[in-house]
Specification:
This protein has 321 residues and is an alpha/beta fold. The strands form three sheets. It has a nine-stranded mixed sheet with strand order 2-3-7-4-6-5-9-10-11, sandwiched between helices. The chain has a four-stranded parallel sheet with strand order 12-15-13-14, with helices on one face. It has a two-stranded parallel sheet with strand order 1-8. Strand 10, helix 8 and strand 11 form a beta-alpha-beta unit. It starts with 10 loop residues before the first strand and ends with a helix. The relative contact order is 0.16.
Length: 321
């Protein structure tokens, strides 16, 4: 079934009580709304309404084989959708609400729209920490499917204006609560009885997961073909600017916009103090600036891979693919 994409006048609305109620009304009417989370801005719609979920795919131009993360407001809502094993229970207690998504067995009576899971027997669930997303779930009374609020494969949005630049005319409303804090999409894991498989790195690191669970963390294959996708963010080319991106650059070459880290000459520095958390928070904003610049190419300095640097480098490799 093909859903045609209508054209809307897109409004950016400052997040407050009135805007929240309007956004919830749109959600209940089957329309997607752009809303901030602590990771990136998401394009949210009722996860139990197949046409509403189809509108997400249409607005983003997202391929139907790529499943969506469903956001819940509390543990009870999660347990009505999926089955949590002992490992998932430990991780939920440690990291929810927060930037951790777990791929869990889907309950047969979950009422989740088929498009959300892309035909899989599992579902990706997260309890976000951002008050705007949590309030929208509660106000609408629905679990919300919400991938990043940008055209599929392009740079993820960390500000309302990023959403407008990518999806203007494709959604009616963007809730604006300022820049996101984490700056990278959530960590995605598959919690098993004897181990945790990491399907996408994020700000919840392997070390944090091992400390919370006492179990080993196995990092899954870096890229997977479309027939092997089991969670969002596993495709080789993703999070990509429109310009070529050169990694591990020591300096800018001709016609390059240089993104730095630490003490280095550059156009934009992710963190002059070489703080990886600060760099993660600024990464996508820097790529948006570089993509909008007059330079024809982008270069970025080397980023250490320890801690959250693993997730930063994951996004950069996919952006450069």
């Amino acid at each position: 079934m093909t859903i045609s994409q209508p054209y809307f006048t897109t409004r950016i609305c400052r997040y407050d009580t009135a805007a929240l109620r309007e956004a919830a009304t749109l959600i209940r009417a089957g329309e997607p709304v752009a809303v901030p989370t602590e990771t990136v801005y998401g394009l949210a719609a009722d996860a139990t309404d197949d046409l509403a979920v189809a509108a997400i795919f249409a607005a983003k131009g997202r391929p139907g084989f790529n499943p969506l993360i469903v956001h819940v407001a509390d543990r009870g809502m999660a347990e009505r959708i999926a089955t949590l094993n002992r490992t998932a229970d430990m991780l939920a207690k440690a990291f929810w609400p927060g930037p951790l998504t777990m791929v869990l067995p889907l309950r047969a009576d979950s009422n989740i729209a088929p498009r959300v899971t892309a035909g899989l027997a599992t579902i990706a669930l997260r309890m976000p920490a951002h008050p705007a997303m949590l309030s929208l779930i509660r106000e609408s009374g629905k679990p919300l499917a919400a991938p990043s609020a940008n055209a599929s494969g392009s740079i993820s949005p960390t500000r309302a204006e990023h959403v407008l630049a990518s999806l203007g005319g494709r959604v009616r409303m963007i809730l604006d609560a300022g820049p996101t804090s984490e700056g990278l999409e959530s960590t995605i894991v598959a919690p098993e009885e004897q181990r945790i498989r990491m399907l996408r790195p994020g700000s919840v690191t392997p070390e944090m997961l091992e400390k919370a669970s006492g179990l080993p963390v196995v990092v899954a294959q870096q890229y997977v073909p479309m027939e092997a996708v089991e969670a969002p963010g596993q495709l080789e080319s993703h999070y990509a600017p429109s310009k070529p991106l050169r990694l591990n650059a020591a300096n800018a070459e001709r016609d390059e916009y240089m993104i730095g880290f630490g003490l280095i000459a550059c156009h934009y520095n992710l963190s002059p103090e070489a703080d990886l958390r600060e760099a993660a928070s600024n990464l996508f904003a820097a790529l948006h600036l570089a993509d909008a610049s007059t330079a024809t190419r982008i270069a970025i300095a080397s980023i250490p891979s320890d801690g959250i640097g693993m997730a930063i480098n994951d996004r950069l490799r996919r952006a450069a693919a």
